[in-house]
Amino acid sequence: MKPTGRSPILVVGDSIAFARRYKAQLLPEAWPFLLREKVGGNLLLRADGGATSTAVVEQVEMMLNYFAAPAGEERTFGWAIVQMGIVDCCPRALPLWLSRLVDRVPGGGRLVARSVLPAIKATGLRGRPWISGPRFQHNLEKILRRLEKLADRVAVLAIAPPIKFLVENAPGVGERVEQYNALLAQGVGRLAGLRPGFVQYCNPWDEPGVRAAGHRIEDLLLEDGHHLSAAGHAWVARRLAGTMAEHAPAG
After folding, report:
1. Which domains are assigned to the chain?
2. Which of 18, 67, 69, 100 is the most exposed place for a label (fewest CB within 10 A)?
3. What is residue 90's predicted lDDT score, i.e. its pLDDT?
4. What is the dihedral of CA 239, 75, 46, 25, to 10 degrees?
């Protein structure tokens, strides 16, 4: 496949962009690197494990400090890929202010994990998400408006539907992922007018598309319920490459 748009590609997000060494996945097998192989060009991966959409805003703002093109000059990146949301969706055991306080106490995190989280699971309480829906929408808009100054095109990845361990240990996370994916799609629709063809929503997890390719979603994710298997990384790279080819800038 020929390169789609100018290189390099910028990827921002959380640990879904990483290979998992404990599963014998190597760095070149992670979807950002597989995508680079498919479409050509260079890659700048700026992702952090456990990053919420608020943290992704900070990632993009840092990139803006270094790579924003002066007025009238070409943008630095041909494409930017935004991958975020699963951390936002997960329930938190405590209010944010109390979580920060507990983190300062030696052993506080272990206490929450051993006592508070099992109690929440036993009662079926869902807890508040780490990032609320309105704040998630606001963060997405901030990210896209900043990326408009950095990249010719942007693809926003849908959140993978959680399975297995995550569903069992985070009550309500599946429904919340559906809600936040809807917010991603709506946000992309609202911001599409920033520039013709600027932003696309890429959902590798639509059931008909997954089945038509001979996959099951269960085979694309690891046992933890949200990180990608080797097949999942390959699938995401394939779907993103298709989106990029379909919406490549003219010329």
Report:
1. 9-91+132-246 (3.40.50.1110), 93-125 (no CATH)
2. 100
3. 84
4. 40
Of the candidates 139, 141, 151, 142, the residue with the CA atom closest to the CA atom of residue 197: 151
User: How open is the CA angle 202-207-208, to the nearest 5 degrees?
Assistant: 95
Cβ atoms 169, 127 nearer than 8 A: no
Helix (H, G, I), strand (E, B) or coil at 116: helix
Going by the DSSP 8-state scheme, the letter that residue 213 receives in this structure is T
Write out pLDDT tens, residues 20-30.
888 888 889 99
Of all residues in the chain, the percent with pLDDT exceeding 90 is: 62
So what's the pLDDT on residue 1? 34
**124, 127, 130, 134 alpha-carbon torsion, rounded to 10°:** 120
With 70 as the cut, is the pLDDT of residue 100 above it? no
Q: What is the pLDDT of residue 5?
A: 43
CA distances from 193 to 148, 149, 151, 196 (A): 11, 14, 15, 6
| pLDDT of 120 over the 90 cut | no
Token pair 């013709």 is at which residue? 196
Query: ∠ at Cα 120 (114, 121), nearest 5°?
Result: 85
Q: Please give the Cα distance from 86 to 161 (Å, whole number).
A: 9
What count of other Cβ atoms lies within 10 Å of the Cβ of residue 139? Answer: 23
